[in-house]
Amino acid sequence: MEQLKDKKILVTGGAGFIGFHLCKKLLDSTPNLTIYDNLSSGKLKNVNDLAKANFIKGDILNLKKLYSTAKTELIFHLAAQVVVPYSMENPIEDFETNARGTLNVLEKARKDDAKLVFASSAAVYGNPAKFPTPEDYGFNPFSCYGLSKVVGEQYCKMYMNQYGLDITILRFANVYGSRCHGVISDFLDKIQENPAKLEIIGTGLQSRDFVHVSDVVDALILAAVGENALGQTFNVGFGKTTKIIDLAKMILKILNLLDKTVVTTTNVSWQGDIGTIWFDISKAQKELQWHPRISLEDNLRDIIRERKMLDEHIG
Ligand code: NAD
Q1: I need a surface site. Which of 96, 195, 202, 268 has the fewest CB within 10 A?
Q2: Is 78 in the pocket of ligand 1 (CB under 6 A)?
Q3: What pLDDT is recorded for position 312?
Q4: Is residue 63 domain-shared with residue 160, that is, in the same domain?
Q5: How many structural domains are present in the chain?
């Protein structure tokens, strides 16, 4: 982290789930941290818990406002519309935020001659035929969200090749941890509301590569400072895949509800839902010296404990 000491850093989407954890870690190294976020899905609580950071409530689509932020040396671009079903219902809004918004952030990077780390997604692969999926598998997005991330990545490559910008792309699998959104928090919400039943959207046979947010933060930082990161794209997952039905059972087991909760499936999933995500992470292990440390089994109990659900259900 010595390389980040006192660095001027801008985090778009810093009020969101991953952004919060990243900013918390960055504040150990630098006081010159600016969060730029429109709070569309980000939380004011996250911003308040990052009191030492400079917070600007702004939209990445507002180029004038983005330009008016202080000159920066390093940008983590995390701001995005992140919900796949929403992207299918609102493809233009999704495109605006994820494609044009990324272009605006690249322009800010070009103006400041800043290094940029871009948060991309497993969604760029769509439904791959190769597992574990390596970075060079190619693009085959299956949702508007996936396509807008492909466009973001391609603009990043254009800015590297044509303007010589220093950019690293990270493709995240399913990120989880404290303050997360997504399937784990959805299940916990449902169980909290009614422990007698748990409905899984889809067949339950969809499978995900769950990676802990603290490992993702380590990857983001290595992408920013690692000598081998320049111009590269890396998968960031745990390198293992877990069926959603098995995730449900793991959660119910921890809650001592395995024999008490009736699990049902809708069989039909949302448009754009991917079958299996399972990343080949050997490139990041080799070239970034990044090694995810926390397994789903190790951390689920902590997430459940944080939501104060253990005392309610276990005697
Ligand atoms: P999040 O929704 O918690 O964070 C996104 C943040 O971006 C929010 O704080 C939101 O308010 C902000 N934002 C959205 N539109 C904006 C705009 N127009 N201008 C300014 N700010 C805006 O999501 P997250 O899980 O923290 O995701 C962070 C990044 O990682 C995203 O780019 C996402 O696509 C990517 N990603 C996340 C996951 C995951 O499992 N969480 C998986 C793959 C990729």
Answers
A1: 268
A2: yes
A3: 54
A4: yes
A5: 2
| pLDDT of res. 220 | 98
pLDDT confidence tier of residue 146, bands split at 50, 70 and 90: very high
Q: Same domain for 118 and 153?
A: yes
Assign residue 254 the CATH number of its domain. 3.90.25.10
Query: SS3 of 275, please?
Result: coil
In this structure, the answer to whether residues 151 and 16 fall within a common structural domain is yes
Residue 33 forms part of a structural domain:
yes
- For the purposes of burial, counting CB atoms within 10 Å of the CB of 238, is it exposed (0-12), middle (13-18) or buried (19 or more)? buried
The mean predicted confidence, pLDDT, of the chain is: 96
Tell me how far the alpha carbon of residue 258 lies from the centroid of ligand 1, in angstroms. 33
Q: Kindly give the distance from the C-alpha atom of residue 37 to the centroid of ligand 1, in angstroms, as a whole number.
A: 10
CB 113 within 8 A of CB 131: no
In a domain, 83, yes or no: yes
Residue 43 has pLDDT above 50, yes or no: yes
Q: Tell me the C-alpha distance between 58 and 71, whole Å.
A: 16
The alpha carbon of 80 and the centre of ligand 1 are apart by a number of angstroms equal to 4
* Residue 24 buriedness (CB in 10 A; 0-12 / 13-18 / 19+): middle
Whether residue 246 is contained in a domain is answered as: yes
Looking at the structure, do residues 125 and 188 belong to the same domain, yes or no?
no
For residues 149 and 245, state if they share a domain.
no
Please tell me which residue in 36, 125, 145, 176 is annotated as part of the active site. 145
**Residue at 286 is within a domain:** no
β-bridge mates for residue 197, sequence order: 262
For 36, other C-beta atoms within 10 Å of its C-beta total 28
Instruction: Note the pLDDT of residue 310.
Output: 84
What distance in Å separates the CA atoms of residue 314 and residue 28, rounded to the nearest whole number? Answer: 37
Does position 157 have pLDDT exceeding 50, yes or no?
yes
Question: Closest Cα to residue 78, out of 15, 5, 135, 159?
Answer: 15
pLDDT (0 to 100) of residue 1: 79
Residue numbers of the domain that contains 47 = 2-176+212-236
* Preceding amide of 132 cis, omega within 30: yes
For CA atoms 181, 231, 22, 301, the dihedral sign is: positive
